[in-house]
Amino acid sequence: MGEAKRRKEMLGENYGKGDPIVPWLPFWTKQSAAKFIEISSKAAWIGIGLMIATWITIRFIGPALGWWQLVD
What per-residue string of b and e applies to 11-38 under the rule 16 or more CB within 10 Å gives b? Predict the structure, then answer.
């Protein structure tokens, strides 16, 4: 615990901001990982919305407009 305190004092406000998470990927920092999670979460919700819209179209809108018939 003493080493962490010393490191935090040494780095000041930059503590934990630029440290690579994976040593062999120096560009993969905590900020880039957080941004990746943010973007992928938004993309997942967009995908879920598109899947629901597609299902509603296939199941209800298409047959109601006579585009196709569902097989029982």
Answer: eeeeeeeeeeeeeeeeeebeeeeeeeee
Q: What is the pLDDT of residues 21-51, one digit of tens each?
A: 666 666 677 788 889 899 999 999 999 999 9
Do the Cβ atoms of 21 and 28 come closer than 8 Å? yes
**Domain ranges in the chain?**
44-72
Spatial separation of the C-alpha atoms in residues 59 and 69, rounded to whole Å? 9
Bridge partners, residue 29, by sequence: 20
